[in-house]
Amino acid sequence: MAVKIRLSRIGKKNTPIWRIVAIDSRKKRDGAFLENLGTYNPINKQLVQFHAERISDWVSKGAICSDTVEKLFKMNKKASAA
Prior knowledge:
This protein is of the alpha+beta class. The chain is 29% helix and 41% strand. It has helices spanning 52-60, 67-81; strands at 3-12, 15-24, 35-41, 46-50, 64-65. The protein has a 5-stranded mixed beta sheet with strand order 4-3-2-1-5. Strand 1 (3-12) and strand 2 (15-24) form a beta hairpin.
């Protein structure tokens, strides 16, 4: 099973909230996920919730991050370092 770490949309119409999830790569975007790894609000450009240690754990097991999740991970590292 190929696991990807990608975004899944939640929230209302015109007010998106994205959930960062570990999911089987063959599942649809908003399908059943393996683990919830965080939440991102693109309107405020803020990470509401972010589990960096769990993401690192999934990546060490062979999960592949999407480009957007990579950017969010770097943004979180930058914010925590400051």
